Amino acid sequence: MAEPPIEVRDLRFSYGHADVIINVSLQLAAGELLGVIGPNGSGKSTLLRLLSGVLAPRAGVVRVRGRSLREYSPREIANTIAVVPQETLVEFPFSVMEVVLMGRSPHLGSFAFEDDRDLQIARAAMTRAGVLELAARSIHELSGGERQRVVLARALAQETNILLLDEPGAFLDIRHEVELYDLLRDLLDEGKSILTVLHDLNLAALYCDRVALMKGGQIVQLGAPRDVITRRNLVEVYETEVYVDVNDVTGAITVLPLSRTYRERLRAGS
Amino acid sequence: MYLTQRRFITVNALLLVLLLGSLALAALVGSVHVDLARALTAGMPDNADRVILFDTRLPRVLLAAVVGGALAIAGAALQGLLRNPLAEPHLIGISGGAALGAVIAIIAGGRSALTESALLPLGAASGALVSMAVIYRLAQVHGRLQPYVLLLAGVVYNAFAGALIMCVNAIADFYQAHGILFWLMGSLGTQSYRLVVTIGLYTAIGAGWLMLRTRQLNLLTLGDDAALQLGVDVDRARRAIFIAASLLVGAVVSVSGMIGFVGLIVPHIMRLILGADHRLLLPASLLAGAIFLVWADTIARTALGAVEIPVGVVTALCGGPFFVYLLKREGRKLFG
Q1: Residue among B45, B52, B324, B274 nearest A93 (CA)
Q2: In degrees rounded to 5, what are phi and psi of residue A17?
Q3: Fewer CB within 10 Å of terminal CB in chain B, N or C?
Q4: What percentage of chain B carries pLDDT values higher than 70?
Q5: Given CB atoms, is B234 within the 8 Å cutoff of chain A?
Q6: pTM (2 decimals)?
């Protein structure tokens, strides 16, 4: 059997003395969309940084296609894993096209110009991310959501098998958000494996093959959305009452917030 | 919209032509009129025009070009590396560190030919490198580069290095102190082609080294995480750029003292015209910086007739207001 795209065993990481990741083990299977959910500060973004090699674990190992990430050069990592971070600040006035072309960097020599093929790949990536018409604009002129899609296009232009995303929908309106996740599903069909951190539990339930629920640096539960996104788990992990139901149209779990009046009523009832 | 090979060649060729034209023109301008036809006639005894043009003006104009180019390309690289459009060798304390290193080299080696061509530039480069390392460390708060801390650290470091220089100067004997003072004032006056070639060589090495890293500079402007995720060996690239920039600034400071603002103004204007891609920005800044300083020095040596203004005064008079303008524009981003 082929090695899984990413395999993590007994991962541990701390900033100073505070443990941020504690004994995390998980596998990203080929062709799956794995969602990582959990409250603020539960270690999701740190886990993502460990998986992309930006941080080195204190203990445990990250294996990418069976090989320890430590043995990869930065360029090899960039040719295998593309990352869409939570926020991208671009200090200098690069054009959108220039930013997307930066995704071709790991494939190029140190002073080579992008050739027609690189341009073609960049344009295709921009078309898929819906930013082709922004190509000539300065990155500084864009809204947060547009910039997020430009960075997605850059990640696509890297042409990697593995994609890691950190709340890619944070700045997007509802239409662009569902289009983003539809695109991720398409990418799975093309053979990519994707891990995304996300806050929106409904989207996690709707789109992810599996979800990992994190709290306090640990994975509390890992499995199908239906088994993980339950009222019991959510109340325990997020420490608040929520309304959980099944969507008639999609059959997926839906989670709705409750105002204080209803939270108290529910707590009294149960 | 994006850099093509054609655009790269066109822009640089155009700037190169402008530079060559500036060199020729600036060499003909001066407080004394030079008869070009006479100057170009070889074999004439007591040919004053020839002496002025080839022994006085041309080496000076060439040195101005080398110094301006080196400062501008170093400034462009540092701005990208530090993600700060206000970063400039002079402002962030690197020139001060280089000057301190150079002063120590003068004290240690005296003003011999060896000092001038090797000890002084290397001393200044080491001083620049040390200051850069210190300032970089100071500017990192919680693992992130804080732009305003960087500027503050530079100011403090400059003042500190200045105090140390004065301290060394006070201790040094009269002959050495005079040498230090003379050099600190910053001038491009030289009659030595050997010096031009030496500094030109350092500049070529430093600039060439930076050119190999221009794509990585683009990625580094996105932040360390993003650069790494796009395949840049961040620590290695940063180290190489630091060393190359130190070599450039050190070599230049060792010959011309402290000439400020070239590394700020030129890359900025180039970025406005050409965009942010460092693959073009760096060579274009090199050429434009050379043109800029050639003309700044021409003003310095002609504006007041026979009296010469230090060229650093001219660049500072242009650069001060420009910096205020930039600070106002960038201030919101830095402090908001």
Answers
A1: B274
A2: -100, -15
A3: C
A4: 93
A5: yes
A6: 0.90
Question: Helices marked H in chain B — which ranges?
Answer: 5-28, 36-39, 48-51, 58-81, 94-109, 113-114, 120-138, 147-171, 174-184, 193-211, 214-220, 224-229, 234-256, 262-274, 278-302, 311-335
What would the pLDDT profile of B89-109 be if each residue is shown by its tens digit?
888 888 889 989 988 887 887
Residue B59 backbone dihedrals phi, psi, to 5 degrees = -60, -35
Q: How far is CA B299 from the centre of its chain?
A: 18
Edge-to-edge strand list for the sheet holding A67-68:
A18-28, A6-15, A59-64, A67-68
Q: Taking CB atoms and an 8 Å cutoff, what residues of chain B touch A95?
A: 1-2, 275
Residue B44 main-chain phi, psi, to 5 deg: -90, 130
Confidence band for B86, pLDDT divided at 50, 70 and 90:
confident
Burial class (CB in 10 A: 0-12, 13-18, 19+), A260: exposed
Determine phi and psi for B115, rounding to 5 degrees.
Answer: -60, -45
* Residue carrying structure tokens 């709707």: A206
CA distance to A128, A158, A180, A250, per residue, from A186 (Å): 10, 17, 10, 18
Q: Which of A113, A123, A133, A160 to mutate to probe the B interface, most B CBs <10 Å?
A: A113
Chain A CB within 8 Å of residue B10 CB: no
The DSSP string of B73-131 is: HHHHHHHHHTT-TT--TTTTTHHHHHHHHHHHHHHHH-S-HHIIIIIHHHHHHHHHHHH
Residue range A61-86, pLDDT digits in tens: 999 999 999 999 999 999 999 999 98
B136: amino acid identity, one letter? Y
**Burial label, A256 (beta-carbon count in 10 A; 0-12, 13-18, 19+):** exposed
Calculate the dihedral angle through the C-alpha atoms of B245, B246, B248, B252, rounding to the nearest 10 degrees.
Answer: 140
Helix, strand, coil percentages in chain A from 3-state DSSP, rounded to 5: 40, 25, 35
How far is A74 from A58, CA to CA, in rounded Å?
A: 19
Cα B210 versus chain centre, distance: 14
Structural domains in chain B, sorted by start: 61-335 (1.10.3470.10)
The DSSP annotation for B67-85 comes to HHHHHHHHHHHHHHHTT-T
How far is residue A189 CA from its own chain's centroid? 17
Contacts of B214 in chain A (CB under 8 A): 111
Query: Can you read off the two tokens belonging to residue A120?
Result: 């073609």
A85 neighbourhood in chain B, CB within 8 Å: 225-226, 229
A6-269 under CATH 3.40.50.300, yes or no: yes
Round to whole Å and give the CA distance between B302 and A187.
67
CB contact B214 to A (< 8 Å): yes
Q: Band of the pLDDT at A23, cuts 50, 70, 90?
A: very high
Note the ipTM here.
Answer: 0.91
Q: Pick from B2, B214, B232: which is nearest to A95 by CB?
A: B2
Question: Does A88 contact B232 at a Cβ distance shorter than 8 Å?
Answer: no
- What does the block give as tokens for B240? 């190489």
